[in-house]
Amino acid sequence: MADREALLAELSALSATATSADGAVSLSVNTDGVLTRLQLTDAVSGMAPAEIADVVLRTYLDAQRDSAKRTAQLLAQVGTGGYLMDRLRWRVRFEPTPVPVPVSAPPPPERDDVVLKDRSSDAPAAAPPSGPVGDDDWYDKGMRLGKAW
Fold first, then answer.
1. What is the spatial distance between Cα 71 and Cα 44, in angstroms, rounded to a whole number?
2. Whole-angstrom Cα Rg for the chain
3. Which one, 45, 80, 82, 125, has least CB within 10 Å?
4. To 5 degrees, how large is the angle CA 24–CA 48–CA 15?
5. Other beta carbons less than 10 A from residue 92's beta carbon
6. Distance (Å, rounded) from C-alpha 48 to C-alpha 54?
7. What is d(CA 31, CA 39) in angstroms, rounded to the nearest whole number?
8. Distance set, CA 127 to CA 17, 123, 124, 130, 146 (Å)
9. Any residues with CB less than 8 A from the CB of 80 and at least 6 apart, and which?
10. What own/partner pairs with CB < 8 Å and gap ≥ 24 does 19-24 have?
11. Cβ(18)–Cβ(59) below 8 Å
């Protein structure tokens, strides 16, 4: 019974931490491989969102693999067969399908032959209504997203 309690305490306290090669991402997972901490450094500010996602995922996989190995070592004393050990072995071998990271390209130059253009910055902002807005005005013109008061 004491061994069981000690094993459960060790499993509960288990935490695996991984850091990306460039130091941009550091994270921790628990014995189940659940993310418990995520830290991003300023190095991610120069990365595209897809690059950040890729680094986080790869670092997360490293931490999960470490967690699975350490959990399997702790549980080996009760046997190495069964569903739980199969799942731990699967977590150690899991390799996701890589997602290609798009190369950041400058936005294309604006063309004159485009039918739909963003002209929101072309028109001057409408002046706010002077005085209180009555109910009839509200219902006649529909809902407005400006400040009501």
1. 31
2. 27
3. 125
4. 35
5. 15
6. 10
7. 19
8. 55, 12, 9, 9, 11
9. 72
10. 19/59, 20/55, 20/58, 20/59, 22/55, 24/52, 24/55
11. yes
Residues 6 or more apart whose Cβ sits within 8 Å of residue 6: none
Instruction: List, in sequence order, every residue forming a beta bridge with 35; answer none if it has no partner.
Output: 29
User: What tokens appear for 60 in the block?
Assistant: 């997360």
Token pair of 30 as six digits: 């628990």
Q: Are 88 and 135 in contact (CB under 8 A)?
A: no
Strand 15-19 and strand 25-30: pairing? Answer: antiparallel
Asked if 92 and 67 touch (Cβ cutoff 8 Å), the reply is no
**Within 10 A of 68 (CB to CB), how many other CB atoms are there?**
23
Task: Provide the 3-class DSSP secondary structure of residue 148.
Answer: coil
